[in-house]
Structure formats: C-alpha cells, structure tokens
Amino acid sequence: MIITPVSTASDEGRRILHNLSDRFQLADSTCRQTVAEIIAEVRARGDAALIDYTRKFDSPAMAIERLRVSEEELTEAFSQVDDAFMETLELAIERVYLFHEREKEQSWLMTRDDGAITGRLVHPVDSAGLYVPGGQGGKTPLVSSVLMNGIPAAIAGVARRVMMTPADAEGKVNPALLVAAQEIGITEIYKAGSAWAIAALAYGTETVPAVDVIVGPGNQYVTEAKRQVSGRVRIDMIAGPSEVLIIADETAEPSYIAADMLAQAEHDPQALAICIATEPDMAARIASELEKQLAELSRAEIARKSLSERGVLLVARELEEAIVLANEIAAEHLELMIAEPFEWLTRIRHAGAIFLGRHTPESAGDYLAGPNHVLPTMGTARFSSALGVETFVKKSSLIAYSQAALSADSPHIQRLANLEGLTAHAKSAAIRTNHIEKKGR
Fold first, then answer.
1. Is the pTM of this model over 0.90?
2. C-alpha to C-alpha distance for 195 and 228, rounded to whole angstroms
3. What band does 134 get if pLDDT is binned at 50, 70 and 90?
C-alpha cells in the first residue's frame, strides 16, 4: 500500500498533524547562496550575464539579438496551433476575465462636516513581469500560467506587461505560449529562465527594462530569487510545493479522491496530497484506488515518489474534527467531498481555494473555472490570498484639510506629537493655526 491510513487520535497521527501545521520552509542555504551570486552577476553585467546563463542551461546558441521574441516568431506561432486549442484558449480567457473583473477596486473620497476630505486613490503599477516556466524544455507549455498571471494585470490596467520564459535548446518558445500571450495582449516576451530571468526583471539589463511587480511560478531557484528581490519589487508570494487537502465523508467517491490526490502528486516529488476521511473503510478504499490509478499515469514515477514520501491519509473521528484540522493546515487547495458542502462552508476560514462537492475537481480551478490558480501554500493561506487584480495595483491616501478642519484638529495633533517627543510635528500644525488666528483678529 503506497499510503497507509492513520488515525488522527494515534501518536503517529498527532505527529503527522504537527508536521503539517509547521510545514513552511525556505530554500536551502546552498540555493540561497547560488541565487544571490546569480543576482549579483546580472546586476553587474546585465545582458552579458543573462546570455551566459541562458547558453549554459537552456539555449547554447542564444544571442542578445534573439533574446526578445521577434515579430516573425509571434506571427508564426498562430500557424503552429490548431483550432481545437484556440477554442479552449478562448473559453479559458473568457472565464478568467469574467471572474477577475469583479475584483476591480475604485478610488473613493469622503468629506467631513468641517470640510476635510480624505480618500484613497487606486492606480495600477506601471509594469509587471510574468514568469512562465519552460515546462520540460518547452514540451509541456504552461498556458494556464500565462492567463492566470497576465489577465489580472490587464484588468488592473498595467501599461507594460512583460513575459519571461526559457527557450528550448534551439532557442525557440512553444507556440502555444506565444499565442496565449498575444491573445491577452502581451507581445514583449524574452527568452530567459530561472533566477537570472527574475534578476533581469527586478534590476533591468540593457535589453530588459526593470518592472514593478514580478509574478509567476517556478522551481526553488525562481522562488528564492523572487524572495531575494522582494522589497525592490512586489512579488506575488513565496510559493512552496503544490498541495491539496480533501475531506471525505461516507458519501464520497473513492476513485474521485484518489484521482485528485494523484493530480497533485504528479506535479513534483515534493507535492503534498492529503486526505482526511471520516470512516476507516473510506480511507482503505481510497488507498486501494491510489494503487490502481497510479499505474495508468504518464508521470507515475513522480506521483509514486510524492505519495510514498509525503502523501497523507488520515482518519478523523468525525466531520467536525476534520473541518477543525483543515483550518489548522490551511491548504492551498481544499476539497469538501462531503454530503452537504455548502452547510460547512462558513466554517472554513483558511484555504487558498475551496472546491465543493463531488463534481468539482481541483483541475477545474487550475484551468477553466475562472478563479486564479496562483494560491498560497505551506500554510500561508492563514494570512494570504490568491493572486488577483489587487496584486497589480497600489493605493495612495488622500488628505485635504479646510481651515476649519485644521483649527479643530490642531490641538489634538499637537498633543499627540508632543507626547511622542516630535516637537517639529507639533509646530507644523501650530504655525498654521497661529496664522489663522492672527488673520481673524
């Protein structure tokens, strides 16, 4: 049995739950140092460093003049995809747009009776960099990443959207990625990957202008590079391995649960697939289904490693306990495979995305449902949200005092400023009200 069911009441179950609640981790020290050196090289040498790394790891014949995807390559890409792909792409774009349009925020003002005006101005950032992994040397293009990162930026009103993605050994980018990018209005695309691509986006090179926000998934080097440049630029999040938590009661379909656990496990050996069942028999049937379905997968070796080393199959005493544990674990994806999922929905406080009922596979959220699939992992759903339009906007406070408002507030401003020992702050209010009083005499 690839995963053995464990009771939450057992010592082993308590140990597993403790580890799940404390699973946040950064890149190892070797990765951190390597990434720091790469960033320093790109900052110091610009395009030359970018080309050197690209030649070494991705495209041996890459040249600076080929770094940006050409107009010819963009045009040619449309002839290399079929009508079926275009039909699916357009449907996915429509769904993601419809969902994220609801996230737009408006600037607002409020006026007090004394004439003071306060408010908030919402503006898009000037530029955003979208990182898209290569996908097995370009063989498995991550089209959904283009849409999930690029569409919210477009809705936010970001004027300049840049895509970074590694080319294959021949210096080419999969046409499906190029078509997807163009269909959502992105034509500035560069052929670079990993930490050096993130460094170029953050600091700029002779060819690649710097951006304000960097988003997109990647391996530990990409993630660590984003962490190291955060502060200079905004990033979407520090993402860990993909994860799913499925809560299953006696009405659940074991084959569905096994399929969804495997869908996570095939991502990466570090992916985390968890199920909390409320019945021992259900847990046993799920374990059996995992064995059965595993043999049918194209990425069976990756999924087996993930499940055998990190997979979890727990048996809770009741559904109430399973819900409590789900909030403690705060998973990236939470599936409620239970009889009445909407009745329990209000009890869920911490999850990146929630999938309700047996007809809602997590893969629907990855591709076509509409909500964003860039979600908090490693328990950070306790305080973080999915990527959205707000990732690409910034907000400025607005304050405008009338003479009457300042006269009324000045004593209070001075009192607080003097209490904090900031006498210049106090005087900046006092000098104005003193002038007002003199004029009034």
1. yes
2. 10
3. confident
Enumerate the H helices of 266-299 as residue ranges.
Answer: 280-294
**Superfamily, domain 6-25+240-369:** Nitrogenase molybdenum iron protein domain (3.40.50.1980)
Cα 1–chain centre separation:
34
Contact 162, 190 (CB under 8 A): yes
- Distance between CA 372 and CA 174 in Å, rounded? 23
User: Domains of the chain: which residue ranges?
Assistant: 6-25+240-369, 29-105+125-235, 401-440
Classified as helix, coil or strand, 256 is helix
Distant-in-sequence, close-in-space partners of 162: CB < 8 Å, separation ≥ 6: 127, 128, 129, 130, 186, 188, 189, 190, 201, 208, 209, 211
Both tokens assigned to 113: 């009776």
Do 29-105+125-235 and 6-25+240-369 fall under one CATH topology?
yes
CATH architecture of 29-105+125-235: 3-Layer(aba) Sandwich (3.40)
Which tokens sit at 327?
Answer: 């909030």
8 A C-beta contact, residue 26 and residue 238: yes
Angle at 234 between CA 49 and CA 225, to 5 degrees: 35
Task: Output the six-digit token pair for 244.
Answer: 């799913």
Find the angle CA(139)-CA(374)-CA(182) to the nearest 5 degrees.
55
Beta strands in 309-352, from DSSP E residues, in sequence order: 312-315, 333-337
CA distance 400 to 115: 9
Q: Do residues 124 and 191 touch, judged by C-beta distance below 8 A? A: no
| Separation of alpha carbons 39 and 34, rounded Å | 9
The residues carrying an active-site annotation are 332-333
**pLDDT bracket for residue 167 (50, 70, 90):** very high
